[in-house]
Write a structure and sequence with these properties.
Layout lengths: L17 H4 L10 H23 L1 H9 L20 H29 L2 H24 L5 H15 L2 H12 L5 H8 L2 H15 L7 H20 L17 E2 L5 E2 L24 H6 L3 H27 L2 E2 L2 E2 L2 H7 L1 H21 L2 H22 L4 H29 L10 H29 L4 H32 L4 H7 L1
Antiparallel strand pairs: 1-2, 3-4
Helix pairs in contact: 2-5, 2-7, 2-9, 2-10, 3-12, 3-13, 4-6, 4-17, 5-6, 5-7, 5-10, 8-14, 8-16, 9-10, 9-13, 9-14, 12-13, 12-16, 12-17, 12-18, 14-15, 14-16, 15-16, 15-18, 17-18
Length: 499
Amino acid sequence: MMELKPLNLVPPNRPPPGLNFFPSLNPPQKTLTFHKFLVLFLTFIAYAAFHASRKPPSIVKSVLGPEIKAQNGTNGWAPFEGPSGPHRLGELDLAFLLAYSIGMYFAGHIGDNIDLRLFLTVGMLGSGILVIAFGLGYFLDVHWLLFFVTVQILCGLFQSIGWPCVVAVIGNWFGKAKRGLIMGVWNSNTSVGNIIGSLVASSVLSFGWGWSFLLPGIFILVVAVFVYMFLVVSPDHIGLELASKEIEMNVEGVALVGKETGEAEEEGVVVEPETEGAIGFLQAWRLPGVAPYAFCLFFSKLVAYTFLYWLPFYLRQTVVAGVQLSHKSAGILSTVFDIGGVVGGVLAGVTSDIIEARGVTSIVFLLLSMPALLFYRIYGSVSMFTNITLMLVSGALVNGPYSLITTAVAADLGTQSDIKGNSRALATVSAIIDATGSVGAALGPLLAGYISTRGWNSVFVMLILSIFIASLLLIPIVKNEIKEKLNEGKWLWISMIKR
């Protein structure tokens, strides 16, 4: 099979222009450690900006859609008003997320062949412009469904550029050691972005729902400028090299074990390119762990993105301690779920590093999240304290395995001997996992839009059932992990219990 050659659209090893304007940021004035922290910060805030710009649709749902009790004669924003309003809003989410999942299949390969900094900047600029365009629908009094759907489709394609790029850059700078912890902390950018988007969009909602889109759109455009100016894609772009044995990652975030460094030299390490050809799509599905984790992420993302897009709307329609929350209060309160997501992502990463079992960690979080969601639905309206507490716990348990699978688990799949040294095989594997999960993310909000008209109990049944299926899919992996640890003499407490 003929190997795809790089596009070479930009000169290799090109440093960002900001380092030319500020020479003091270049080595040897600034060390490798400084640039690692700079890369962590820039990629963190970049992807947080992506998620902040995704949040406005969920915040304005309660304004666009039909009110429980229409006030001042208003009943939503055409074409989202009336009994079919939730259906149209769910279809709007589907348009964005389906385009996003399709884009994920292509973004990785494109990012492999062109400058990641430029590609990421293009994704951020396109996303910002389209988010602002959606908000202009308010100021221009647009009521054409096709306009909003088209904007969401295009926005989904540009948004799909973000994740492959930021993970690839992180992979160039950081190796495998403590991957669960590092990726768990770094991956909190999604929850932090959701929190920023919720707070900003909610704070200006009273001025008109268009402002809820304009400010997050401007935010991602501003961050894009800093990314373009200062993001260093790889250490060798500024004359730095990783002195210790590192494992690089491809664009989708999977470790390239065939690109391990050789013996450490004072002047650096020469990385040899791999030469194996790509494997087929069906072959990649048959690799150990790929199918279970891909479908597990499908159902995990279905749940996580249902909360992402519908939680403020749910809170607006739910009476908490006898009080009907306002649009602004519902949007701000929804950030508690994302705060729990930050805690859950870090906790899952640390736990999986300690016990050295990603599957066991994921299934424990999933199993605990089922009663947590049930309790939240039953007791969340008792008082504000119980609502916040149960929402915090639910956010941690739902987002923990989702965060773990999209980062550390995807990277771990690159270490298995079946595809050792084959980066193009790894790209296929990671695309399968991420894109399959994104299809679930597209389906969840759509189903919630239709099912919610029958009552929110039905929505929570769907969520708990999805988590249960996700747990079942991990059973073979969990059994293998436990067996492996017992054979290695680890987890002695299990052996003692069995005796």
